[in-house]
Amino acid sequence: MRKPSREELEKLDKDQLIEIVLELFDRIGALEKKAARSATPFSKGKGKQEKKKPGRQKGRGKFTRRMEPETLPGDQVETITVELETNACPDCGGTLKRGTEVATIIDTPERPVRIIKRFEVQRGKCLDCGKSIRAKHPELAADQYGATAHRVGINVIARGLALHYYSGATLRKSAEAIGMLGGIPLTQSALSQFTRKHCTGEGILAGIYQGLRREIANSPVVNTDDTGWRTGGRASYLMGFFTPQLAVFQVRKRHRSEEVREMLGKDFDAILGTDRGTSYEAKEFDGLRQQKCLSHLCKNASNVEEIKKGRAKDFTRELKRILREAIKIWRDYKEGTIAEKEFRRLGKKIDEELTWHLRDRSFKDPDNQRLLDGIGKQHDKGRVLLFLEEPEVEPTNNRAERGLRPAVIARKVSQCSKNETGERQFEALKSITATLKLRGQDVAQGLADLLRGALMTSPFSSR
Prior knowledge:
single chain, 463 residues, alpha/beta, two-stranded antiparallel ribbon, 14 helices, 7 strands, 43% helix, 9% strand
């Protein structure tokens, strides 16, 4: 808007002045919103008076109290009896009714107990040909002699790798933490060399990772998402594929339908939960059943609604109402508050409402038209309310976004991958450690068991 002169303003009537004032208010509001968003990193535009109070908020999340620790094999349990010093009430002198309550403190020894296995390996040398031989032991590597004769055990290595690939600490900090907590010297290079050996080629972790990829390709429902990554300082993509029991990652230079098919396989015909990324709109995916994330669709509608006025908001408001009602129906069914028959009836009703709301028509507003055409196309393909037909499918892609979050944090505090070898190592160990956690196993101990070769019918069989 051109800035009018004072003489021009004096010639305007009341209605024209009001229109200018309203336009200025809109511009000021947009500038304030932009300033609030860019005030600090990760800011959500909330002022100090709107910030959440520390601690659990009422109605936010399930409240649980800390339970008495479970006694595990090998634990040293010491029971200490704390007796009352009197038999009478210190205030009135009345008789006390005795009872007992339990309080616990769980701790570790001041000095960790280290296990040092000292092998006296016999050697022999042929007097005729001069060939040397060494005695073998299952815990000793074939090349464990000379300068590399003294090494740390699998448990120590597994804890260091779990700190790095699952918890997000750098390799250097992971090695330092092992030294402080376990009293065992460990170097960054030891972790790097061990990872390179077992995550590439014929390494045991490389084989387990390939097994996880096959499991994903055979899963009935898979959620996927991607985020930025860097390899050798160049931009790349980190893709994640998730089920309730699986988390499989891959790093590639590009994120196209080819990379998605590389993970899922050409014969994948199950259900894929995604956002509105263009990679999933390729022609080869036309026959693939997909569930678009309703949270993304609602956000798209909200973004349009924010910049509209009056009746131009009606389309997005009704769209969000229908989508949120569909999510509520699905959640009620999963929680058992409505029966399957009622779920099917309500699902059919919602489908009819959305079909009517997304019918072919023309809007004067181009943003509403674009939203109608985009979401309408997805609804025509059965990708908006598929979860009402197949309840095992989730209406949002939240599972994939949660699964990627630790990797995003790792990206922010590291240099990502130095080269393609680093990519393969990250893919394998990030997938294995995340899957161990999803299956309720201790990450470090589970990784140690895998490295010892504790494999049964599948890489993560319950033991």
